[in-house]
Amino acid sequence: MRIIAILFICLPTFLAAQSAEEVLKSADAKIANNKFKEAVAELSAFLNSNANNKEVLNKRGYAKNQLGDFYGAIGDYNFALELDSTYSDALNNRGEAKFNLGDDYGAIEDFDKAIKHDPKSAEAYNNRGFAKYNIEDLQGAYFDFSKAIELDPKDADKYFNRAVIKAELEEYISAIDDYNKAIELDGSSADSYNFRGVAKYGIGQIDEAIKDYDKAISMEAKDPVMYENRALAKTDKEDFEGALADYTKSIELYSEDPDTYNLRGVIYYNLEDYDNAIADYDKAIELDPYNPVYYDNRALAKAAKEDYKGAVKDYSFSIELYPQDPETFHQRGLAKINMGDNYDGCLDLNTAVELGSEEAKDSIKELCK
Q1: In this structure, what DSSP letter does residue 255 have?
Q2: Quick one: which of 48, 205, 268, 269 is 20 to 30 A from 186 by CA?
Q3: How far apart are alpha carbons 56 and 47 in whole angstroms?
Q4: Which segment of 45-49, 154-158, 178-182, 200-204 scores lowest on mean pLDDT?
Q5: What is the Cα–Cα distance from 60 to 58, expressed in whole angstroms?
Q6: Residue 238 pLDDT > 60
Q7: How far apart are CA 306 and CA 338, in angstroms?
Q8: Does residue 291 come out as left (phi exceeding 0), alpha (psi in the -120 to 50 range) or beta?
Q9: By the 8 A CB rule, do 363 and 333 touch?
């Protein structure tokens, strides 16, 4: 019993005597195993008697950030930076917390300072690239991701990040080169294949794009976007049955995207299944009643069923939402004429011509004599 009592009495002394290095090592092990709360508790216990240790404050801030306690994390980084305003790691980490809170400009300020004090921080450049991307500074993001690659050329994610920017800048061939490098370094990412497929689609390599989508889906079968991407490529090849199957799978995985219903409706329309097309457009409009394209598409399907009154109603909704589209006036005019309302129909055709429709001129010559 005495031995146990002695050990119990000595335990607090042992904990208090732990060095910062030992605490940080122990916390790192917990963080590596996603035990962030335990890491925060251990680091907090150390800070109770050693409040002015910037490394421990920074590490606790990191653990809090992983828990989603972004304000708490920023508080710890602030304390660390009061002790050392040039502490690059804390500046970078505080920038990440601000980024997570949606404060992109504040994050960039911190990443700027982190880079100033540590110009070889690939992580700070990479993080600043994300923040610049969010504020639509694509050229700035391109530079930062390139610099991150220069400093850390073995990280697949950095090539992937730059490839995304290149693709948005429509530099598809160069983007494909970066996706290739990302896959070479880490072939386990379904996203790399999926996004490479998008880039290949962008330069018209439809068959190659489908191969990449096939590979991505074989690795990650529950991502609705991948099925939608493949459906778009199949549509270009007029493989409407294949596209239909992919859109249906995408909707099965995520049923709240109005555009997927709209796109599947287009496939049904191409297959002359107008009832199912209208049902999909109905769902798209239910989810997003302010998109004029959905009304235009539903109107086309209704017109194909000779429901011209319903088509005129949908075109009218579309015109309320976007009154500058000449094609909507053109199509509404044709639907009115098919109903026998030549006067109003020809007025719509004239409006379409005023808005720039050349096709409406031909319709006027034929129908408005």
Answers
A1: -
A2: 205
A3: 7
A4: 45-49
A5: 5
A6: yes
A7: 9
A8: beta
A9: yes
Task: Among 5-19, 147-161, 352-366, name the one with the lowest average pLDDT.
Answer: 5-19
User: Pseudo-torsion of CA 230, 234, 240, 242, nearest 10°?
Assistant: -50
DSSP state string for 305-346: TT-HHHHHHHHHHHHHH-TT-HHHHHHHHHHHHHTT-HHHHH
Please state the domain extents for the chain: 324-369
Contacting residues for 338 by C-beta, under 8 A, at least 6 apart: 303, 306, 308
How far apart are alpha carbons 163 and 198 in whole angstroms? 11
Q: What is the pLDDT of residue 16?
A: 44
DSSP SS3 for 67: coil
**CA–CA gap between residue 264 and residue 49 (Å, rounded):** 63
d(CA 58, CA 75) in angstroms, rounded, equals 10
Task: Give the length of the chain.
Answer: 369
Quick one: CA dihedral 253, 131, 129, 155, positive or negative? negative
- Longest pairwise C-alpha distance within the chain: 113
What is the sign of the dihedral through the CA atoms of 53, 54, 57 and 59?
negative
| Span 331-342, pLDDT tens digits | 999 999 999 999
DSSP 3-state assignment of 87?
coil
